Amino acid sequence: MNPSPVFVGEVAFAELASVICELKSRGEQVLLVTVESCVALHKPLIEKYFPEVPNYISPSGEAAKTLEAYKALSSALALLPMGRGGAIIAMGGGSLLDMAGFAAATYARGINFYSIPTTLLAMADAAIG
Q1: Distance between CA 44 and CA 23 in Å, rounded?
Q2: How far is CA 16 from the centre of its chain?
C-alpha cells in the first residue's frame, strides 16, 4: 500500500492547487464537492486556491449519505464531463467525505479523490481511516 501525504493548514490548499494545475494542464476536470457552511467559512481560501474549479454543493450531515445525493453528484460528474483522469476534491465533515469518496471510487470505475476534512471526526475517520 502506498502512503498518502497529509498536509495541515493553508499549505494543504497550496499543495492541492498544484495538483489541480497539473490535472488541468492534461485537460482533466476537477470538481469541488462541499456544503454551504464550508463555502461561507472558507470562501477566501477557495477563491485564492481553486478559482476556476466548479463547486458542487451537497446536502450536509447524514442527508449527504443517501441514494438521491449520490445520484445527484454522479449526474454532476457526468455533465462536466468527468473522465477517468479527473478528480473530486471533497471539503467538509465526515458524511460529506464518505459520500464524495464513494462517488469517486465508483464513478467511471474510480477517479482521483482528495479530501479536506473540516471536523475532527472527519480528520480521524473519513479522511484517513
Answers
A1: 22
A2: 11
Q: Which three cell numbers stand for residue 2?
A: 502506498
The grid cell for 55 is: 463547486
> What's the confidence (pLDDT) of residue 88?
97
Residues in the chain: 129
Closest CA to 58 of 27, 22, 103: 103
Mean pLDDT by 10 residues, the chain (129 residues): 75 91 95 95 93 94 90 96 95 92 95 91 72
CA 30 to chain centre: 9
Q: What are phi and psi of 70, to 5 degrees?
A: -65, -45
